[in-house]
Amino acid sequence: MTRVRFAPAPTGFLHIGGARTYIFNWLFARQQGGKVVLRIDDTDVERSTKEAIKSIISGLLFLELPWDETYYQSGAREFHDKGAERLLVTGAAYRDFTPPRVDPSSTEKQVSPWLANPGMRELSGEESRRRAEAGEPFVLRFRVPRESGRILEFQDMIFGSQSRAIEDIEDFALCRSDGSPTYHLASCVDDVELEISHVIRGQDHLTNTFKHILLFEALDFNPPTFGHLPLLLGPDGSKLSKRKHGPVVSLTTYRDRGFLGHGLVNYLSLLGWSAKDDREIFTLDELLETFSISGIQRGNAVVTFDESDDQNWADPKALWVNGQHLRTIDVEDLAHYIEKHLLAEDMWNPDFVGEGRDRMIATVDMLRTRYVTLRDFIEKGAAYFSDEFAIEEKARKNLDKGDARTLLHELAKRFKSYDEDTFNEDNVEKEVRGLAAERGVKPGLIINASRAALTGQSVGPSAFWIFIALGLEHVIKRLEQA
RNA sequence: GGCGCUAUCGUCUAAGGGUUAGGACAGGGCCCUCUCAAGGCUCAAAUCCGGGUUCGAAUCCCGGUAGCGCUACCA
Fold it and tell me: N or C: which end of chain A has fewer CB within 10 A?
């Protein structure tokens, strides 16, 4: 049985690199008919927060790729303790009483690689126990058998055959001085506990994998199959991170700014993976059909975004992919997503249910070809859903041209004799063009002024269509107020 | 510094010994047109450098360089 896990540390929001890892895990597992476990790696009590867990889960829900089980590492402490105990008893681990390094994050160059603290591996079992019982703090370290001169090897699903000399691996920590397990210990023990068959994670763990293999062996378990994904880099070329790149890379930002869950899934899946043909747009089903680990390449991918640019706050390609989804998904579904945003903005109008439903759907359908996010319906499309909308500078200019306002008022007067049946696109066009001919002005003058009066914008769908979309009542009101 | 990984248009990528090095986004132009989009057509844009191997190298090998990652009592 294929079982994969996605294991974020709840030390902040989940960024889109993590989301991509989740997507690839999910796709792989689902193709195999396997299970997906969400494992919250909250062993670092200092930095883990409840809010982060909430943010991660809500971000993941937004992707609409459901997982099967949720597991909290903090609730599995007894397994970790048992593992640590076992490693200590068998001699695979030892206590290190060396005080912590003063400034572990210091940038000073290391002259030679650190492998172990002097004197600690050689401590006799008795002395080690005595000092521990006396209350002297220690970290538990893995005793890497460097003297074996072994070359460690494994087959990575993505990077292929990997090897590393055991003598280059340092005695990594298994438990902190407060007794809590580190990532390496907890992760491996839990992978065993959860019967994980495939570990698919970021390439930043590629070198750690050798440590993990050593750990699995010492614990007497067969290591799972590993696959490492190329990393996502920010515009500056460094590994995507919440600290460095900020909330623009947060999964929840994409949700809040109006991405479609599967639109983002599509874009993210294209980073490091391709179908080997020219296709770029995939529904979830198509992705499920097409995705393959062998289509993943090994180079890191740069995500370009510009926080200060309203148009390109996300990667332009991400926006484009989302736009493609926006205009191809079922319009009813789309309307449903838009409703949520309207509700959130207090722009919800009860007319959108019942009789007005069809009108709303038709509006959404017309607007979707020129928008790329759900937010656009709220911002650029305000006039279609609400009577409160701003009038743009360019639109005002269109209204100020010639006798535009007078003509619009005349138009309003004429539409008063219309009813629901006669008020259709053809008749409106005839009326508008007729008025233009009558007064000897270009039709464009009235047309563009109409759009300005009706929507507050100089750009948008066909003006004749807008008349119908808004309905007779609103049209007359807005024309009169022009 | 040590170890590991990677290297094709600005960005995401295809081509795994023989192609005018293909596609997509973004950019330019044209068509369409009541505006803006969408859509269609089109232009510009790349094999990191140096050596091999080979009739032939983006592709295989070696060396350099660059980038990224790891080198924590973070994950």
Answer: N
CB of A98 lies under 7 Å from some atom of strand B: yes
pLDDT range class, residue A107, cuts 50, 70, 90: very low
| Within a domain: A370 | yes
pLDDT value at A308 more than 90: no
Print the SS3 string covering chain A.
CCEEEECCCCCCCCEHHHHHHHHHHHHHHHHCCCEEEEEECCCCCCCCCHHHHHHHHHHHHHCCCCCCEEEEHHHHHHHHHHHHHHHHHHCCEEEECCCCCCCCCCCCCCCCCCCCCCCCCCCCHHHHHHHHHCCCCCEEEECCCHHHCCEEEEEECCCEEEEEEHHHCCCCEEECCCCCECHHHHHHHHHHHCCCCEEEEEHHHCCHHHHHHHHHHHCCCCCCEEEEECCEECCCCCECCHHHHHHHHEHHHHHHCCCCHHHHHHHHHCCCECCCCCCCCCCHHHHHHHCCHHHECCCCEECCCCCCCCCCCCCHHHHHHHHHHHCCCCHHHHHHHHHHHHHHCCCCCHHHCCCHHHHHHHHHHHHHHHCCCHHHHHHCCHHHHCCCCCCCHHHHHHHHCCCHHHHHHHHHHHHCCCCCCCCCHHHHHHHHHHHHHHHCCCHHHHHHHHHHHHHCCCCCCCHHHHHHHHCHHHHHHHHHHC
Is 50 exceeded by the pLDDT of residue A82?
yes
Domain end among A305, A326, A347: A326
Strand B, CB < 7 A, residues 326-345 of A: 327
Q: Is the CB of A324 under 7 A from strand B?
A: yes
Chain B, protein-covered positions (CB within 7 A): 1-8, 10-16, 22-26, 34-39, 67-75
Nucleotide closest in space to A104 (CA vs C1'): B72
Asked if residue A230 is part of any domain, the answer here is no
Q: Is the CB of A179 under 7 A from strand B?
A: no
Give the predicted TM-score (pTM) of the model: 0.94
The answer to whether the C-beta of A43 is closer than 7 A to strand B is yes
Q: Give residue A102's pLDDT band: very low, low, confident or very high (50, 70, 90).
A: low
The pLDDT of residue A110 is 62
What is the percent of chain A where pLDDT is above 90? 80
A242 is catalytic: yes
Domain range spanning residue A364?
Answer: 330-382
